[in-house]
Records
---
Amino acid sequence: MDIGEVVFIISRLALGALACFFAILLWAKTRDVVWMFMVIGVIASYVETVYAVLGIFGIVARGFITIGNVPLLSMVLPNLPMLFFLAGFVVMVFRKYRVGV
């Protein structure tokens, strides 16, 4: 592993941890569904980053459950944050554009 990979890993972990910290602080202050989805999306993104780093170091087994040749967690974790962000955006769109409800 060269210095570029180390800097990349450390920056992803540090910035992700900082984002999660502030997201959890926000979660404690708001009960809005849209913001809760955004916070969960940020936390899911950090979980994906940690899982990827653990995979790089060989700490987690990536082939636990597979779909074809692709490990299930390697397929689900990168998409999970986007699903939460999508849910938050959909709720917000329905709030802004609902008519007479």
Note: The mean pLDDT is 90.
---
Amino acid sequence: MFKRLLDGTDLGQLKDMVSPAFFDVIPTRVLWKQGRALAKRYRDQRAYTEALTHRATTLNAAELGVNIGAIVGDESDRVEDATARGEALLRLYFHQILVPGPALLDIRCHRFARREDGDGYVFDPGHISVEWDAEFREGLSGIYRGFYGDDDELFVESLDALDLRCAEETFRQQFGEGDQHAVRFEMKTFISSFHDAFVACREAGEQLHSGFLAFGIYLAFLYDHLESIGGGPFDVRSAYEAAAGKQQAEAA
């Protein structure tokens, strides 16, 4: 069934990233519905254009050193700093979770490049996008805000809002040990840790929100990209704080 959901898109590599336990914690009808919704958005040029326009506007306002644009020329000829690239990618990753609106999920390596003038990065996304419902996005952003804001009460409340207390330890480990200023990313770690989370949720009798299909794609592509440029270490906490800074200031 998962293969059928991927037909007609460029998501084929995901088949090797998915734990079988994932299908035990999202009901088949929910998974199928969400998969069809993703496929429909993938083919909808108007939805893609709207997502691009929205994200271009919010990224320009955020001043994170990443902007929507076309990758021009041969990226292999450009001098690259893997650490700077990875941390710019992480700022983009957090921005799309923290700031409402459609998220452009395809953040793989070939969609991201240093600008020709060396001033920041260009994000040239494919058509894979999602607009999470408010409940899911608020719960997910609350998990990150609670963790990186050292607000354990918010962290746990947000896990509970998405029925994810069963995966609390996995989320803490995925965010990085210590102060999160030097975190490594490996795809095998991502697959094994989330397999453990899905098994824990299955054993607790929990069923995950449908938003986890798109979030899983997004997170898998993040790990794939970061591993492809050496895996780090990357300063994840500083990337989060940069992405959250202006939003928090405006909310104050």
Note: The radius of gyration is 17 Å.
